[in-house]
Write a structure and sequence with these properties.
Length: about 350
């Protein structure tokens, strides 16, 4: 599949019939006014003029809010504005994000007319108690019905889930991933909960009623969930909220984040942890006390193998006393690596013995 260019159009809180305890879309997106058809066209033109590769797949993505809950005439205006570029051959398809209780056969037929290809559902959890606790306003049964309808009508199905919701446990989150896999999405996003200014969750946090995950907990949980999706061949297209001026370190002046497992390279932390586990398993499989190994991997995987700020290399040295050399190799498939022992402690002892022998 070709790499994609995404043209993002934000529709903050447009049409959403509920205010979830964790949500403040206007702050997250940095937008306070509603988008118009004219602005959609201007945004698409701007992005198209700045794309350097004309051969890449281009998709217009309506993010935020609940697209199919918007007043129908406005939906049609926004979609028609984007669809003009599809008709001209400048854009390949359109993606929307919406709520599972805002999907019907009639809505899907209309979306088809405007060349919408992908529909992402904000699921968040498969546990109805947790959904109610967060004031989502829908149940998991709504997710099941909407997912089946979307697939039956030939759309690409996407799901968005959250970890660290109020009263949600790791077991709840693992179960959510398993339940989503049964619904056969092609793509999924995993969002650790951040406490955002102006939300009900901020009040709960300040009153001591909610404790967010720390980075380590969020990484470990996300890692297990990613492995589940990977085994089922569901592509995880995002882990963690997009880093923006508003979604940044809580100490930053413009940040809307109060607390939670924020990190500018959260996905890299998760992927690095996954690589670390694999490398440790391989090293333990060697029937010798390893002193130094050489890892060859596809250049695209090298940074994740090394880890954020060389964390994996440093941990392997500190915990297992193993020196690791990582070498890029384009002949190695993405997602794979080769590891070989360059030196064992037996080799080191033998070298020392030889050195002492010659000195004598």
């Amino acid at each position: 599949m070709k790499k994609e260019y995404i043209i993002p159009i934000f529709v903050p809180h447009l049409g959403c019939p509920h205010t979830c305890s964790f949500c403040n879309q206007r702050e997250i997106s940095g937008q306070t006014k509603q988008v118009t058809a004219k602005e959609v066209k201007e945004t698409i033109k701007y992005y198209l003029s700045n794309f350097k590769d004309d051969s890449k797949y281009v998709e217009v993505a309506f993010f935020g809010g609940s697209f199919t809950a918007i007043e129908e005439n406005m939906q049609n205006e926004l979609l028609e504005a984007a669809n003009e570029f599809v008709k001209q051959g400048k854009v390949n398809s359109i993606r929307i994000s919406t709520r599972p209780d805002c999907i019907t056969k009639e809505i899907l037929k209309r979306l088809k007319k405007y060349h919408v290809k992908t529909i992402e559902l904000g699921v968040q959890s498969s546990n109805d108690y947790i959904l109610a606790k967060c004031q989502r306003g829908h149940t998991f049964e709504d997710v099941k019905k909407a997912s089946k309808l979307i697939r039956w009508h030939g759309f690409t199905l996407g799901h968005q889930m959250m970890i660290g919701l109020p009263e949600s446990t790791k077991l709840d989150e693992i179960n959510t991933a398993k339940q989503l896999i049964k619904l056969k999405p092609k793509i999924v996003r995993i969002y650790p909960v951040l406490v955002i200014k102006g939300t009900a969750l901020e009040k709960e946090y300040k009153q001591g009623e909610y404790r967010p995950l720390n980075i380590e907990q969020a990484v470990e949980c996300s890692k297990e969930i990613m492995q589940l999706f990977s085994k089922s061949k569901v592509e995880v297209i995002r882990v963690g909220l997009q880093n923006t001026e508003e979604i940044s370190d809580p100490s930053a002046k413009e940040s809307q984040v109060i607390a939670g497992p924020y990190h500018p390279a959260f996905r890299q932390l998760v992927e690095a942890s996954m690589w670390y586990d694999e490398i440790v398993a391989k090293i333990k499989h060697f029937n010798v006390k390893v002193m130094q190994v050489l890892i060859t991997a596809n250049p695209e995987n090298v940074n994740a193998i090394i880890g954020h700020k060389r964390e994996n290399i440093l941990k392997l040295k500190e915990i297992y006393d193993v020196n690791v050399i990582v070498k890029p190799d384009t002949t190695v498939k993405k997602g794979k690596f080769h590891i070989e022992v360059e030196k064992t402690y037996e080799d080191a002892l033998e070298e020392e013995r030889q050195k002492t022998y010659h000195e004598d």
